[in-house]
Amino acid sequence: MTKRKEFDHGLEELNGLIVEMGRHVETAIAQAMTALETIDADEARRIVKEDKELNKIEEKISELGATLIATQQPVAKDLRRILVAFKIASDLERMGDLAVDVAKVVIRLEGQTLIKPLIDLPRMSQIVQMMTYESIQSFVQENVNMAYKMAKDDDLVDALYAQITRELFSIMMENPKTISQANLLSFVGRYIERFADHATNIGESVVYLVTGVRPDLNS
């Protein structure tokens, strides 16, 4: 196998690991939200334990990327692709941590009844799942247009988070006994809002990979 083919094979492996990590993150946030809707603490504990698998994939990406740099000495866009893979893996690892944070809220709510039906939080979760998928696809396909389109959904997530915060504040004002749970649900909204920010960061990395210029898609 020529040196270039070895390098291309390594990049394909790197792409595969990023895709695998993205799927783990999508699944984790979906499962954490389902656990919240049903206050399923046992499911939440399982989600917390499985976060270790995500960390293992990130370690594989770090090791493979470092090996490619050391043995192939890439330059220009080839080097940028590996550096971007490191950054994306870091964002995905943090997104996994935020899914775990949601699961930990579920564990704290064990035995309680929800103070309100959950509508906007699951909607936020669905949007960030799609953002995660599109951000990873934009990386694999080097599709700048998809990265920009994905980032626009961050505004919708921000709007839903603001709406949830206002609603929970009103509930707390009407019934102080709800303060503890309302605060926890507000934390969940914050975790998902930050989750979307990391997906947008991935979009920025894709634009940087393709153009060499890093935009601010979170502004």
**Low-confidence residue ranges:** none
Please state the second-level CATH architecture.
Up-down Bundle
Quaternary = single chain
Distance between the termini: 45 Å
Largest sheet: none
Shape: elongated
Rg: 19 Å
How many distinct beta strands? 0
CATH hierarchy class name: Mainly Alpha
Helix content: over 70%
Mean pLDDT, all residues = 95
CATH topology: Methane Monooxygenase Hydroxylase, Chain G, domain 1
Q: How many structural domains are formed by the residues?
A: 1
Given helix and strand content, the structural type is: mainly alpha
Secondary structure tally, helices: 6
Q: What amount of the residues lies in strands?
A: under 5%
Structure, explained:
Homodimer. It is found in: Cytoplasm. It is a single chain. By secondary structure, the protein is mainly α. It has a single domain (1-211), classed as Phosphate transport system protein phou homolog 2, domain 2 (Methane Monooxygenase Hydroxylase, Chain G, domain 1), CATH 1.20.58. It is built from 6 helices and no strands. The protein has helices at 3-38, 41-72, 76-108, 120-141, 144-174, 179-211. The radius of gyration is 19 Å and the shape is elongated. The termini are far apart. The model has no long low-confidence stretch (mean pLDDT 95).
SSE blueprint:
Elements: H1 3-38, H2 41-72, H3 76-108, H4 120-141, H5 144-174, H6 179-211
Helix pairs in contact: 1-2, 1-3, 1-4, 2-3, 3-6, 4-5, 4-6, 5-6
What is the gist of this entry?
Residues 18-106, 122-206 form the PhoU domain. It is built from six helices and no strands.
